[in-house]
Structures are given as C-alpha cells and as structure tokens.
Input
Amino acid sequence: MIIDRALIFVRDTGPELEVDKRLEMIVKGEVQSDILIFGSSRGARSVVASQLSDSLNRSCYNLSYPGSDITFHEYLLRAILKQKENKKPSTVVLVVDEGDEFKKTVGLKFRYDRMFPLVKYKMIRDELVSRNQKKWGVTDILVSHQLNKTFFNFRQKKFTKRDSITHSGSMLIRDQKKVFNYVYKDKPRTYSKKGEFKWKLKAFNEIVALCKDNKIDLLIALPPNFRVAIDGFKERIEELLDGYGMVYEFDPTIKEYKDAQYFFDNSHLLKKGAHIFTAELAEILKH
Output
C-alpha cells in the first residue's frame, strides 16, 4: 500500500511550505509503534518496516530521512520520548552510513528543512532556538520570522517515484539508477577515526544513552553497499556502544549482495534487495 502524499503542501504567508507529516506525527504524539527505525536514505531504502511487522508480529515504523545525519536521528528519538503521548518503543534500529556516519559528508545533515514548516509548534520552535536558527520572543510573536530564507524557492516542487512513502514509513526503490557501474568493488578498505566530528560522536552516544536509560533495545544495522565492507567500521561502532546494544552487519555470503540487479546504485538497495536485508534483521530481532 502506498499513500499518495506523506509529504504535502500547505498554504502559509506567501510561498508554499512543504509539511512533513511524519515529523508532525512526532510533535502531535501520534507515534505508536513498538519498533522504530532511524537512519538516512540507507535506512529509508534498505529496511522494509511492514515486513518486520509481519515477521515479528510487532508494530514497526520507519523514520529514516534521506540526507539526514546522526544529529537529526538523535533529535527524532529525543523528541519522541519527550512527547509523552508517543509510545515509548521497545526497540530502536539505527541504520548507519558505513564509513561516513561520524565524518563530514555533503549529503548528510540536520534536516532543518523538515522542521521550518512546523514552526507553529512550540516544540519545534524551541529546538530551532536551541540550535541558533530562531530567536526567543520574536519567534512567538512575528509570523514572518517563522519563515526561513530556505522557503523562498518558487520553483515548482515535484515528487518522484523515490519520494513515495509506504504506510509504514519506508521509501523503497523499484527502478534502477540509469547511470550505474555494474562492477562490484572488492578492493579492501580500512576505517580510520581520523576526521570524525565530536558532535556526531556525541549525538551517537546520546542515542545509546537514551535507549539505555529508557530500557530500549538498540540494534545498529549495517546494510550492504555494492562493494566490500570497510574493515574496522563495525568494530568502531561496537567500541562506541560500550557494551549496550549490538551491531549487525549484512551477511557477505548472500550472493545477491554482489549482484547489481539488487541495487539502485552503489549505496542503495532496490526493493527486492531491501526485502533480503530486512529478512536478516528480522531473524536477529527474534532473538
């Protein structure tokens, strides 16, 4: 089942503002799933929440945002737990970006664009103020201040097939990218801590602490890329977990993970590949 628009347009003063209904669910206390999935596009594309629900007989929702980083994932979890009407999950699955999770990456950031259209909610305004995006007092009084310069883009916004969000929050891809190198990259690589950002490490540590303090099971998931896994990255995650939660890295013996027909591009699975990886996660979560 595909809903027509999990992202819809609403009229405010002037330009059209894109309101994210998933984030609004958090603010309004409407998140009621037992298992929650967080991550960037790799979480959105690689984990089929409805499949986990069916396999485990537990409610599951995918709150992964393409282009988001670990600081945004930490915010989402913290916001869910802060808003008491939300159900506290029993399990959190955090899908990480291999090699890039804690480093400067152009494509991964805190998704302010998802928050600005929801400034009518005090919870959102408070977070923006805390991140130096808005000013106290002015924010609550002037509607015009609630519009950020990033809104003023009058180009028509168009949805693509990849924007389709399933009823359980996953964003699965059916069609392969037109420009794609079909050669599997098997050259060994080793992870280095050099270049890690302290605030990204802090956000990860806070996710672990939130789960630990609230007795939430934590699973860190490493889905496959169309290349060999980076040596030492899984171990780095385990080091940061410091004994709480566990890490699951995809099974490298599964032949489909070396078949380009299961990938959208070098970093994202197609829907049929996502079903295979989700089946792996389901088996881990059963134990």
The domain at 29-110+168-285 is CATH 3.40.50.1110 (Rossmann fold).
